[in-house]
Specification:
The protein is α/β, with parallel strands linked by helices. Helix content is 33%, strand content 25%. The strands form two sheets. Strands 3-2-1-4-5-6-7 form a seven-stranded mixed sheet, with helices on both faces. It has a two-stranded antiparallel sheet with strand order 8-9. Strand 4, helix 4 and strand 5 form a beta-alpha-beta unit. Helix 1 runs parallel beside helix 6. The longest helix has 24 residues. It binds 5-O-phosphono-beta-D-ribofuranosylamine.
Length: 209
């Protein structure tokens, strides 16, 4: 069965592009990008989505953050208008700078993924690369996880480790982590589309093909 994909963004869109490109080159099959939604107007991700011929929609939140089912209802309506439903859809958060309401999360249970630039459960929330650098860890990385009601707390699908170098700045570290993000996010989407993710409690078991 084909998975109908929505990607939610707020800015640069490099993870979104990695996923769309992986679909285009056939690394991921049986996934149809249906819509890209941004909570902010005029962001780069919207231009990239158009280059990939994916409808790019702005649902402006006016900079208001915080869980808000009224706002999320507008997202859900847009998803349904583009045929991204709880029974056929996948929603990828890719630098989407909002926390989802529990109503939205429960409606699309285990069908919403997020990418986070640390090895969760270390350094959740904002500025994860800076948190890792300032804490002094020698290894950090990135995580793709299913979204639950918490912030960066859902079942972990894939992780990659990245070494922290003595001469790293937040920018150099973030850049190396981002390269790994661009590998594991498309891979997680591919595994989902191949129906190879089994959730057992907090664990996500990857079935062999
Ligand atoms: C990435 O570092 C991602 O891990 C985090 O936000 C950033 C988004 O970057 N959630 P981009 O918009 O995908 O380029």
């Amino acid at each position: 069965m084909v998975v109908n994909l929505a990607i939610l963004v707020s800015g640069r869109g490099s993870n979104m592009e990695a996923i769309l490109n992986s679909i285009k080159i056939g690394f991921i099959s049986n996934v149809e990008p249906k819509v890209v939604i941004s909570n902010r107007p005029n962001v780069r991700a919207l231009d990239i989505a158009k280059q990939y011929n994916v409808p790019a929609i702005v649902i402006d939140d006016g900079g208001k953050k915080g869980r808000d089912w009224d706002y999320d209802k507008r997202i859900v309506q847009c998803l349904q208008e583009h045929d991204v439903r709880p029974d056929n859809g996948l929603v990828c958060l890719a630098g989407f700078m909002r926390i989802l309401s529990k109503e939205f999360v429960n409606m699309y249970k285990y069908r919403i993924m997020n990418i986070h630039p640390s090895l969760l459960p270390s350094f959740p929330g904002l500025n994860a690369q800076r948190q890792a650098l300032e804490y002094g860890v020698k290894i950090t990385g990135c995580t793709v996880h299913f979204v639950d009601e918490g912030v960066d707390t859902g079942p972990i699908i894939l992780q990659r480790a990245v070494e922290v170098r003595d001469d790293d700045t937040v920018d150099t570290l973030a850049e190396r982590i981002l390269k790994r993000e661009h590998e594991i996010y498309p891979l997680a989407v591919k595994l989902f589309a191949e129906n190879r993710l089994r959730i057992e409690g907090r664990r996500v078991i990857i079935l062999s093909s």
